[in-house]
Write a structure and sequence with these properties.
Shape: elongated
Radius of gyration: 20 Å
Largest sheet: none
Structural class: mainly alpha
Distance between the termini: 35 Å
Order of helices and strands: HHHHHHH
Length: about 160
Amino acid sequence: EEIDEEQARKMTEKLKKSQFDFEDYLESMKQMRKMGGLGSIMNMLPGLGGMGGLGKGKMPDIDADDAEQKMARVEAIIYSMTVEERRNPDVLNPSRKHRIARGAGVDISEVNRMVKQFGEMKKMMKIQMMKKMRMIVMRTRMTQYCMKMRITPIS
């Protein structure tokens, strides 16, 4: 199965607006599974391909089965949330987190860890998107300047 290009475009737009939520996170995990799961993706990466899912050298050892289990727990936690909680993680208070933990069959510390990691990932994605936007603006300005000065821009 191919990755849905429309979904990828929508995800990019949400990232630009910093609106990435747990539903998007679930969707990205589904897309990863369509690509053959974490082990398959690791085999596509330079330095990890053909190593049976384990990294060597500078890359830390990665257990694909363990990673898949952790991904399944994250999904269970997210599926234990209400739609409102998935769309707006800011509403997650301690009592909601306890309910989610019970529903997912995990300890509250796992819920807290996952929510914290999601927040950190969201910040990193925002920073990366801002860097990308800055590069586009700089490239556009450089092209406009070159056109104004009648210089052939370097591509």
